[in-house]
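[[Local backbone shapes]]
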Amino acid sequence: MTLDPAQLAELETTLGADTLHELLVAYREDLATRLAQLRTATDPEAIRHHAHGLRSGAASFGAAALAAAARDVELGGGSLAAVEHAASAVDAALGARLA
């Protein structure tokens, strides 16, 4: 599972369905932006910064595979391909949930 259903249910209980929906829409847009920024980053500090942003957002919504892949890049290992693959799965899950 790319998004943790229990974490999303807890957020929905805490925030309400409408607010969670709005946050997921915003997160989907942010995911695309941060991924594009990571793709074009060449400076190690910029790479770490953008990977950290991807990691934080992913963790907020229970996207563990994306958070782990971004963490690996943030720490100087890992691959952009792994981040891309995980981000694609998260985007698909968000699209299905928001439909």
Summary: The helical segments are 5-15, 17-40, 44-60, 64-74, 80-98. The two ends are 17 Å apart (CA to CA). The mean pLDDT is 95.
